[in-house]
Amino acid sequence: MQPGSAEALLADLDLADEDVTGVIDHLDRLPVDERPTDLMASVQPDELVLTDGQDEATMALPEGRRYVSIAPFVDETHDCFYHSLTTCLGELSGKDVDVVITDSATGKTVVDDSTTTFDNGFVGFWVPSDITGTIEITAEGKTGTTEFSTRSDGPTCVTDLELQ
């Protein structure tokens, strides 16, 4: 983290003392109408980039971990590559979902969780870096599957998982 800058950008949100996982978790779960309009927070493969339009700061992600944010959809989606914690909106807000994330190389399940989509329509998970695999989500009797990658060239925002 750059000395002082990330803390200053996060001070108004009372997040200056949080580590990067706490900042990401808080911002992704924040109700849409409470999101800061003057802060952009973009999850890159190795870091969180914060900017208020004038100053920019970065916070390194934990070694060996990647954050993947997923917006399952039925009717509408948007193109996205790096998840924006303050502006990305998915279709299915507050929906109960079952999520299974599998590493294709090992066949190992890295996430098997029943949760509720955040107010922004996403669910987010910390998964191992440098893997590829599949994400399967079931909600309201519909299931969708998509491939993902947590390699350095992989997206942190998954918006192509259609529930059918």
UniProtKB/TrEMBL annotation:
Matching Pfam families: CueP
Identification of the protein by name: CueP family metal-binding protein
Gene3D superfamilies to which the protein is assigned, alphabetical: 2.60.40.3700
Organism: Brevibacterium permense
InterPro entries: CueP-like
